[in-house]
Amino acid sequence: MFTHDSKQEVKHKLLILYTIDEFRIPLTNTQLTDFIMELNFMDYFSLQQYLTDLTDKSILEYSETHDGSYYLLTENGRKMLEFFNDRIYDEYKVRIQKSAEIKEKRHSKKTHKYLQTMLKTLSMITLYNSRLKRINLPSLI
Q: What angle, rounded to 10 degrees, do the helices at 7-23 and 44-56 form?
């Protein structure tokens, strides 16, 4: 994979793989781009080129689902990361880990709030449905 790449390209591609692996959830292009750009690891255009290269070489998979498109590490990507993991500076790993942890906590809080709101909404619908049923009207859902 990295035979014709410069040392800088290899470092950047490994950082991308490490970042995706560290999140342990699929990331959209926007999420990954925002995260990498916040850490100032590389410029936007290089990042997009590296993502394309890694996808073309089946190290990453760009998977489309009903709710968006996501980057996933392939088995080849995992093996590559394991093999070259020692080439990623510990300083970068720590920065990625800390930032990923913060993002995951924020995401978790947002998800929790969303689920609470949904539960309240469902409770209200259930309540209204039971009242509608008592007076012989069709339910809301």
A: 80
**19 near 85, Cβ under 8 Å?**
no
Q: How far apart are CA 27 and CA 107, in angstroms?
A: 12
For the chain, the structural domain boundaries read 7-102
d(CA 15, CA 46): 13
What pLDDT digit, counting tens, does each position of 81-129 carry?
999 999 999 999 999 998 888 777 765 555 556 667 777 777 777 777 7
Q: Please say whether the dihedral angle defined by the alpha carbons of residues 48, 53, 55 and 59, taken in this order, is positive or negative.
A: negative
Long-range contacts of 74-80 (CB under 8 A, 24+ apart): 77/17, 77/20, 78/21, 80/1, 80/17
Cα 36 from Cα 20, distance rounded (Å): 10
What is the model's pTM? 0.70
How far apart are alpha carbons 57 and 78 in whole angstroms?
13
Domain over 7-102 is classified CATH 1.10.10.10: yes
Beta-carbon count within 10 A of 132 CB: 13
